[in-house]
Design goal:
alpha/beta, 44% helix, 6 strands, six-stranded parallel sheet, 220 residues, binds magnesium ion, binds 6-O-phosphono-beta-D-glucopyranose
Length: 220
Amino acid sequence: MNKIGVIFDLDGVIVDTAKYHFLAWKDLADHLGFEFTETDNELLKGVSRVRSLEILLDIGNIELSEEKKQEFLISKNEHYLQYITKMGPEEILPGATQLLDTLDTLGIKYVLGSASKNAPLILKQVNLYERFAGIVDGNSVSKAKPDPEVFLKGAKKLNKEPEHCVVFEDAIAGVEAANTANMISIGIGDEKTLHEADFNFNNLTEIPDNFFTEVISEKI
Ligand code: BG6
Ligand code: MG
């Protein structure tokens, strides 16, 4: 069991912040005069803030100066923070706390591997910050998912071989990053969307009791 390390994505796995990103990006789209739907918002899952803005502007068919882009990145984040700073532990997604408890019991260490620069703040808001053995977030990587950098840095923090790391992800870019890093990828969400994952579950409550002791142990 000591061989295994776990890396969790944050948004969409431990908390559902996509709805807040949506409200903040939609506000910007409204300001710029085009429609931005929840379906469009799916394209922003797992990608960096800068890349999210580029995708949004593509949808609106809008070109902006670098200066304007920087201005909107700041105002969008300020708007997003208004929602984030109101979050509490009740927003932890079903099964997440139980899964961390199981890992603690098994003596398996876990770290965070998130694209978000707000990850430490969000973990503090929901009272989970202290539980993680380390945090790799959007501030500590130079290449965004699907680049494996975030997870390889996570493996270093865990002091584990990449092939002994298990990654929980809800985004296609994140599953791809985990696979490229040679880790075991667990897709959380729609199986059809995340078909490249090694294992799929709709949410964290579906992880079977013997998942680490038998299923994963047999694979590594
Ligand atoms: C990811 C989200 O976790 O973080 C993306 O899935 C988001 O939707 C990205 O764009 C960056 O977040 P932040 O908090 O740095 O703007
Ligand atoms: Mg995510």
